[in-house]
Amino acid sequence: MPIIKSRSPTLTLKRLNQIHARMLKSTTPYTLNLFLGSLTHSTNPQDALILYNQMLHHPSSHNHFTFTHALKACSSLCALQKGLEIHARVIKTGHFSDIFIQNCLIHFYVLENHIVDACRVFDAILYPDIVSWTSIVSGLSKRGFESEAIVKFLSMDVEPNATTLVSVISTCSSIRAVKLGKAIHGYCLKNLTEDNIILDNAILDLYVKCWSLRSAQYLFVRMPKRDVVSWTTMVGGFAHRGFCEEAVGIFQDMLQRREAEHNEATIVNVLSACSSLCALSLGRWVHGYVST
Predict the structure, then answer these.
(1) Per-residue confidence (pLDDT) for residue 62, from 0 to 100
(2) pLDDT tens figures, 161-200
(3) For residue 288, what pLDDT band results from cuts at 50, 70 and 90?
(4) How far is the C-alpha of 253 from the C-alpha of 234, rounded, in Å?
(5) What is the pTM of this model?
(6) Which of 62, 217, 255, 266 could join 66 in a cystine, given CB atoms 3.0 to 4.6 angstroms apart?
């Protein structure tokens, strides 16, 4: 079994001594998993794998939650070989059918860019839940398999949530699939009851990238809440498509409404618009505004 060194030996030794004392009294997994989860989310997740190795020596001290914590630690550490080892042990001990472990494995393989393995795990799930579907759709999209991500999304047999929809809308933006994006937007309007600015911004980005500026403007003015991402998307979208006067007007509207503070990207986009318009005085005004 691989030796995993700790970056904080004193802290780890203290924790492991506490755990060892508890294990002498009881080998039930509940308390140990609490420690394991704490270590997994700490600044030194490699300590979790040290504990995980110790827990394996006591068959009654671990359960399926133990493997999920260990896999999350592997994801944080990009520890591919250790993750493969845990996957093999999960199969050997008969825990592979656990949906929590399967979802952790999908997430782990996506982060490691092992998309084939992620898909194999997903395909082995009898009844994928929303986490399973979102993980595989998002994973395929982020790793460059946009068409496959959309195929997976269209085959979903559970209701997508906002996270799933953000992922697939971003995929549509990447491949300029505006018709599908509009259909998904329609689904959101019909089925989602809660406002979600992240989803709205993703749809806004889709329309801008697909040259549907009228649709973008229609959505923008009706968004219940707008942040710097919303405003910057509009300024940049209009500026990069030759509507520079409109881009400058949106920026001026942003300053007047004071809904959000501009950032560096906002300023770069509006200065680009000023440059295209040969509006030196306006560019100086923007520069002076930022400098004050």
Answers:
(1) 86
(2) 999 999 999 999 999 999 999 999 999 999 998 999 999 9
(3) low
(4) 11
(5) 0.84
(6) 62
Parse the chain into domains and list their residue ranges: 1-96, 128-223, 226-292
What is the identity of the amino acid at 194? E
Kindly report, residue by residue over 86-115, the tens digit of the pLDDT: 999 999 999 999 999 999 999 999 999 999
Which residues are CB-contacts of 69 (< 8 A; sequence separation ≥ 6)? 33, 36, 37, 40, 48, 52
Residue with tokens 């801008």: 208
